[in-house]
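cron nightly-structures :: item 1 of 1
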Amino acid sequence: MSGEFFFYFFALTTADNAICSVWFKQCQQVARGWAHAQSGQNPPLHTFIFRTAQLKSFLVQVIFAYDGLERLVLKWGQKVMTKKTHWMMKPTQRVLDTFDIQWFMVCTVHLAKGEAEAKLAAMNRAGMIDAVMTDDSDVFTFDSTVDVYRANMPHKDYALVSLLCGGDYDMAGLPGCGPATAFGLAHCGLGHSLHAAESCHQFHSPFCQLWHEDMEHQLHYDPMSCVGRRNPALADNISDTVPDINTWSAYLNPAVSEPLVPVRQPGVPDVSKIAAAAVSLLGWEDADWLLNTFRNKIWPGVVMSELLQNLCT
């Protein structure tokens, strides 16, 4: 299907504290800012429904991916509630069903267990989807070829940045190394050399020592002007644990479950089910107001969906 439509993907994660997905967070933040009587009994879901309706009016095919319950227990040093789902998960899945939008739960295995980003990146590499949109930059290190927020860099360079700055799999990274310095070291070829060594199974002590010396030299003298400045203090404090092969492999070789999720043809929203969900979830019981809202917010997406469906048949 790639090439016929531009697919626009959102990775929705479910976790505790402030690690929720970009849409979950934004819907709740918007709701707090303008909640009033007309938004119904559940302002966050009100926002989610209107956003979903707007997506259906675009020339895009959308798939939502939810992190599975086997996702990482710790992310950035914060404990993630892996056995408890976010309260918005079930109602938003119901909303997506009424709009006939595909969604799936991610159940990946081994190092990237339960990571929606790893699954979507694998689908992107396979050409099943054209783009990924997520608030988690790990999708870069998982080798997503196209991301809505992505700069033009190889995935091994993003993996090096995560390795040095700290990420989901290793929060510490290289203490004192910020993003600007990490990107500079990536431009020096340190990510490429790590990737080449792992590919040739040469990730051993002699190589690590040479790699350390190379990074120390780049930080001490910045000979290629990639880092932007000399940083002898950081060069003299590189830990022996950097690079960590397990962390590097977790980013470069995420093992995801097979087969990959098949992409469905575009579907048409079921207006009656959307109305029932609006009454149930939002308390919209005024028939005249409901009809006017659907005319302005829902019908454009219904018409566009029918046009796309006709093009696919």
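cron nightly-structures :: done
The first helix runs from residue 22 to 34.
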